[in-house]
Amino acid sequence: xxxxAARHPGEGRDLSESRRDLLSRDxxxxxxxxxxxxxxxxxxxxxxxxxxxxxxxxxAVRPDRVxxxxxxxxxxxxxxxxxxxxxxxxxxxxxxxxxxxxxxxxWTTDWITxxxxxxxxxxxxxxxxxxxxxxxxxxxxxxxxxxxRFGSTPCKAQxxxxxxxxxxxxxxxx
Length: 174
Hints:
about 170 residues, alpha/beta, GMP Synthetase, Chain A, domain 3, 4-stranded mixed sheet
C-alpha cells in the first residue's frame, strides 16, 4: 500500500513521466491522486480561502484512509473539518475511505504550503514567520506591533500596523 505524506511548502505534485507510467499500472496510486484532488477543494472552515491541504491539515492519503491533524489539540473546527472532508469524499464516490485524526506529531506552521501562505496574505492574514515583526497584509509595512497573543482563533495573534493603523491576524509559529 502506498502512503503519500502531506506536501510541505514548495512541494507540488510529482507527475513526471515515470510517475504517470506508475499511475497507469497501479489503481491505488490513481485513487490516492483522486482523493488528494477532492481534499484540495475542501476549504478550511475558519479561513475559507485556503484548503485543508493548503494548511497542512491533511497528513497522509492512502486508498482506504485520510489522516488529518488539527492545527492544535482541541481546535473547535476539527469536527467541522472532518464533516466537510467526509461530505466531499462521499460526493466524489469515496464513501469507503476512513478519516483518521492524529495528534502526534503535532501540526506545525511549517506544513502550510507556499500557496497557502500566499492565499493567507491576500486574505489579510499575515502568514507565519520567524521575524520579530509582521508585515502588514494591507499596506506591506513592517512597522507593526502585537496587540495580543490571542487573535480571532487560538492559532493566530492580533497585530496592528502603525503605518495604516489596520488590525490584522498573524499565524503563530509553532
